[in-house]
Design brief:
The complex is a heterodimer of chains A (425) and B (439).
Chain A: H1 13-28, E1 32-38, H2 45-48, E2 58-59, E3 69-75, H3 84-99, H4 120-136, E4 143-146, H5 151-161, E5 165-169, H6 173-177, H7 183-195, E6 198-201, H8 204-214, E7 221-223, E8 248-253, H9 262-275, E9 279-284, H10 290-300, E10 306-310, H11 314-323, E11 326-329, H12 339-345, E12 350-353, E13 366-368, H13 373-385, H14 387-402, H15 406-424
Parallel strand pairs in A: 1-3, 4-5, 5-6, 6-7, 8-9, 8-11, 9-10, 11-12, 12-13
Antiparallel strand pairs in A: 2-3
Helix pairs in contact in A: 1-15, 4-5, 5-7, 9-10, 9-13
Chain B: E1 2-10, H1 31-59, E2 66-70, H2 72-81, H3 83-94, E3 98-100, H4 110-113, H5 115-133, E4 139-141, H6 149-158, E5 163-167, H7 170-173, E6 183-184, E7 191-195, H8 197-204, H9 219-227, E8 235-241, H10 255-268, E9 272-274, H11 277-283, E10 289-290, H12 306-309, H13 312-323, H14 325-330, H15 334-342, H16 347-350, H17 372-402, H18 407-414, H19 420-425, H20 430-433, H21 435-438
Parallel strand pairs in B: 1-2, 1-8, 1-9, 2-3, 4-5, 5-7, 6-10
Helix pairs in contact in B: 1-2, 1-3, 1-10, 2-3, 9-10, 13-17, 17-18
Classes of the chains: A alpha/beta (425), B alpha/beta (439).
Chain lengths: 425, 439
């Protein structure tokens, strides 16, 4: 399995999805070798320590509880959700740090002698080459690649080994960038999809994008919805947040990027605040629209009612869910969207955009068009104003989410593996 | 002797328009959708079925009889959107073979929440039916056939009814058959007619179901089932939604042909006949007493009220609605009272039902909302506006009496343009015919 990120090093839903799926497959007894890039930026050295650094090219990491899964890490600055220009900035930053005596990477490792002068495109292909090398030492039946950065690696490994490639589409360039697609990324995605034996889409919403935008024949694309881990609910005591107890909290949690529709959240917030007062809006996450979001808040004059938390991880995520009265996901284009499931898992009712894959599996959620700010505000007010609505949504929603299990997704995956292997042999 | 008693429920709710919390307007109902649906159902069901029954009644010269319960909210809509339907009902009334039943004018659940309001609505309906069709209803049916002993005694105390209709639910009958007339517990003279749900549903729900072992249902086959009742019952009460004909069962299923041939097949057996509910009452004596301490209805498998007040949203919405009663009746603004009453129609709460939401089934039919949550939000927003209108009115009324100096200003703020009623009267709706009773 070629992935991107894995807890605890996550920046979005992809890592969560990979973890959930891998864990469930592990329980089914499937043997998995999970290959993922490992950034060598100084910022992450604390996490790198967690890995076993004694491997030459790659590092194996052992996560407790996963008995059938081996991890292989490839040193690479690749990170999910990066646009090439930002990637360039990060490389420059890393270069500067290196000049100032940064020696985080041990230069005798083959994979870690990173050519910092290369662009993202080259890096993706360099990653592919190392993955192919790595694959020689491994024994496997199918290759499962998650999202575009691993597709070239998937294709390389598949060509070399003759094993079938399955690409798993968690998002497409059209979701991330609207109509202003990056041609390089689109080409990689397209090539990956066409080279694959089977394509797994996280929703029918995404499946139709794959068929209409990438010219893939429909019988090749299967839908496997994401699910959610059920974690024990430990209740947190909230008094450190600067939010009054009688104030309601409306939560936005996700990357603050165009795709997630933060501006619609804020415009709706403004309308809500025109009608009711005892409510605060929390934006948890970071992203390239962060500054713009702060500006919008200032323009709308609702600075005293909007809190930015920055990027949250682990326990902090749990904590923020448990503080929230309502979760809003106004995504412009959301292939799936695991966060609403997590919210419901924590008994928080959700408003989700109709332009999302998760709306295919959730019935006990309020659904809106992301651009319909009036309707978003209308529904936010309703949930805050009428406790029976909140209770019914949370109760039935929580029940509904319990039925979405990674085990079922993993079983569907296993079936696709079998089909793909049979087709190739 | 088996008497077949047909009664058809004819009703369409007034659907609300999309109404957000930011809306200020006092127009709550979606005239466009309501008109469109009313005309569609008129063309597919009401007109062809009325014509068919007129035909059959004339052909059998008084031997074929049926009964209707037409809600007030439907009549108002028919007058506005499809007046030709009203004249065909009129023609049916004139044949003398058609009986009209009484119910709550607004097809409401008021019996459960306010006895005063319930009685007012029943009286309003009785007067409306009398003014339209020239007959005073003698038999009462409550919304969704909701029933218990208390309802029976209340109806008897009104003095003008001979019988009441409800569901022949298994758990109230035990081993008894619905094919007899019964006596409701606690009543002295009132009689109880019970729906034969099995034979009724054969037509209303199963008629076009190809997985059903008896498909296709022919008039001949159905008549044989009716004949089987002979010797083991007096009546077969076939109660169903009128929309069964042409809407729930499309014309293509052959439902109209079935109905056209049914009288002939049933009357072939010399012991069979057709009777209206009040003829049944005149003809047969009760054979036993039926005790219904707990509320029942004709809905779903449970035969309870959970389709309307089963979840927290439904019970919240309906309690909030009836909480306004006193306030609304104090300010005698007819427009506000009418709006409040139109919100009582049971369908508004049915749309909020989460019971079978996940599976998607009969509850979806005619449901204008994507989800029960949307319907609750919409309803509560409308109710919020209605509440504000009342409060403003109260402000105006008290100022009028106690603080004359500010009267001019508040008059501007709180008054309802009285002329609006003239605007409404254009269509000559039954509300306007009967406004006297409201006050």
């Amino acid at each position: 399995m070629l992935g991107w990120e894995f807890p605890p090093f996550i920046s979005g839903g992809l890592g969560t999805a990979c973890y959930g799926l891998t864990k469930a497959m592990d329980e089914l007894g499937l043997k998995i070798t999970f290959v993922l890039p490992r950034i060598v930026d100084n910022k992450y050295t604390t996490h790198v320590k967690l890995l076993a650094p004694d491997y030459a090219t790659t590092s194996a990491l052992n996560l407790s509880g996963l008995t059938n899964v081996k991890f292989r890490a490839i040193n690479s600055p690749l990170q999910p959700y990066l646009a090439p220009d930002i990637y360039q900035q990060q490389i420059e930053k890393a270069l500067r740090q290196k000049k100032h005596g940064g020696n985080a990477s041990s230069s005798d490792d083959v994979g870690s002698t990173i050519d910092y002068n290369c662009d993202m495109y080259t890096e993706v292909h360099r990653y592919a080459a190392i993955a192919a090398q790595l694959a020689k030492k491994e024994d496997f039946d199918v290759i499962h690649a998650h999202d575009w950065m691993t597709y070239p690696a998937g294709i390389a490994v598949s060509t070399m080994s003759g094993k079938p490639l399955i690409v798993h589409v968690h998002s497409t360039e059209f979701d991330r960038s609207g109509e202003n697609v990056n041609q390089m990324i689109y080409d990689i995605e397209r090539e990956g999809m066409h080279s694959a034996e089977k394509i797994i889409a996280v929703s029918h919403f995404t499946r139709s994008i794959i068929i209409s935008r990438y010219g893939v024949s429909g019988d090749k694309v299967e839908v496997i919805h994401n699910a959610v881990e059920r974690n024990g609910n430990s209740k947190w005591i909230l008094n450190e947040s600067g939010i009054d107890k009688d104030e309601k909290i409306v939560l936005f949690l996700g990357r603050i990027t165009m795709q997630k529709g933060p501006e619609y959240f804020l415009q709706a917030a403004k309308k809500v605040l025109n009608a009711i007062d005892n409510v605060k809006f929390v934006m948890a996450g970071s992203g390239d629209m962060m500054h713009r979001a702060v500006e919008i808040v200032a323009e709308l004059g609702i600075g005293h009612k909007v809190l930015f938390t920055g990027f949250l991880r682990g326990e902090d995520v749990q904590k923020i869910y448990q503080m929230a009265d309502l979760y809003v996901m106004p995504s412009v284009s959301e292939p799936f969207g695991i966060a609403p499931l997590e919210a419901l898992n924590n008994d928080v009712p959700v408003i989700i955009s109709k332009q999302s894959g998760v709306s295919e599996v959730l019935r006990h959620a309020l659904k809106v068009d992301f651009w319909d700010v009036d309707e978003i505000a209308n529904k936010i007010i309703a949930v805050l104003k009428y406790p029976p609505l909140r209770e019914t949504l949370a109760n039935y929603g929580n029940f509904e989410v319990r039925r979405l299990r990674w085990r079922d997704s993993a079983q569907k995956c296993a079936k696709i593996y079998e089909e793909a292997s049979a087709a190739v042999c | 002797m088996a008497s077949v008693c047909f009664y058809f429920q004819v009703h369409q709710p007034l659907r609300l328009r999309h109404y957000t919390v930011f809306d200020q307007s006092d127009t709550y109902f979606d005239d466009y959708t309501n008109g469109a649906i009313c005309r569609k159902v008129a063309n597919k069901c009401y007109l062809p079925t009325n014509r068919l029954f007129l035909d059959i009644i004339r052909r059998y010269e008084g031997r074929f009889k049926i009964a209707y319960s037409l809600t007030g909210v439907l009549l108002e809509q028919l007058l506005r959107f499809a007046p030709e339907v009203v004249s065909t009902f009129d023609a049916l009334a004139e044949t003398g073979c058609v009986e009209f039943l009484a119910e709550t004018y607004y097809h409401s659940l008021s019996f459960l929440y306010s006895r005063d309001e319930f009685l007012e609505q029943v009286n309003k309906h009785v007067e409306t039916i009398e003014s339209f069709f020239g007959q005073k209803p003698r038999v009462f049916r409550n919304t969704e056939l909701i029933y218990n002993n208390e309802l029976a005694t209340l109806i008897e105390s009104m003095g003008n009814f001979d019988a009441i209709i409800t569901e022949g639910a298994d758990h109230i009958l035990g081993l008894r058959s619905p094919n007899f007339v019964y006596h409701p517990k606690g009543c002295s003279k009132l009689k109880l007619l019970l729906k034969n749900y099995s034979l009724s549903d054969d037509i209303a729900f199963r008629f076009s179901n190809r997985d059903w072992s008896h498909w296709p249902l022919t008039a001949d086959k159905f008549a044989r089932w009716i004949n089987d009742v002979n010797g083991n019952g007096n009546v077969v009460n076939l109660f169903m939604d009128y929309e069964t004909f042409g809407e729930h069962q499309w014309k293509e299923t052959g439902i109209f042909d079935f109905m056209r041939h049914l009288p002939e097949q049933i009357l072939k057996h010399l012991d069979n006949n057709f009777k209206t509910p009040s003829e049944i009452v005149d003809c047969y004596e009760p054979i036993d007493t039926i005790d219904v301490p707990h509320l029942i209805s004709w809905a779903d498998i449970e035969r309870d009220l959970s389709a309307w007040v089963g979840n927290a949203m439904q019970s919240n919405a309906i309690h909030e609605l009836y909480r306004l009663e006193k306030q609304i009746k104090k300010i005698s603004d007819e427009k506000i009272i009418a709006d409040w009453r139109k919100l009582q129609t049971s369908d508004h709460f049915y749309y909020m039902c989460t019971k079978y939401f996940a599976d998607g089934d009969v509850h979806k039919y005619f449901n204008p909302y994507d989800s029960p949550y949307d319907s609750y939000i919409n309803f509560m927003n409308v109710l919020g506006n209605l509440h504000n209108r009342c409060s403003k009115q109260v402000l105006f009324d008290t100022n009028d009496i106690t603080n004359k100096t500010f009267m001019g200003k508040n008059y501007q703020m709180g008054r309802r343009p009285r002329s609006r009623h003239c605007g409404l009267a254009k269509g000559k709706t039954p509300t306007d015919l009967k406004t006297q009773t409201v006050n």
